[in-house]
Amino acid sequence: MPETQTTAPYAAALLRIAQGIMFLAHGAILKLGTFGLAGTMGYFGSIGYPPVLGAIVTFAEILGGLALIAGFATRWVSLALVPLMLGAMMQHVGNGWLFNVPGGGWEYPAFWTVTLLVQTGLGAGAWALDGARLSARRVAAA
């Protein structure tokens, strides 16, 4: 068996779990814990979005992060999180490329967008509920 066939599921899992942890931390610790839901909603309102979008993004990051960690509906969750990253990128695009500029650059959300698209293509990989569901279906069909 070629080496990539044996390592690819673990690489996909590593990417998926890392993304999940980052989304969970960004939604729960940064948005809820640091700024609070009202602060996050206020920030979204201050940059021209409906404040409720701040709550939607917060809970999308938390629920999306948990789903990625668990490997639940990985392809769909990864794809659903792409618009969040595109929105973040659009907020930073006027600041320039690098994140070290005032207001942050757009390279970080652009990179996140790419990793989510890669995860969409790879699927959940190892240690995922997606794989457990597929295995259960195969057993039931046999």
UniProtKB/TrEMBL annotation:
* Repressor recorded as keyword: no
| Entry membrane topology | Multi-pass membrane protein
List where in the cell it is found.
Cell membrane
Origin, by domain of life?
Bacteria
* Record field: transmembrane: 21-46, 52-72, 79-98, 110-129
Coiled-coil residues are none
Q: Which UniProt keywords apply?
A: Cell membrane, Membrane, Transmembrane, Transmembrane helix
Family (UniProt): Belongs to the DoxX family.
What is the protein name for this chain? Answer: DoxX family protein
Q: Which organism is it from?
A: Belnapia mucosa
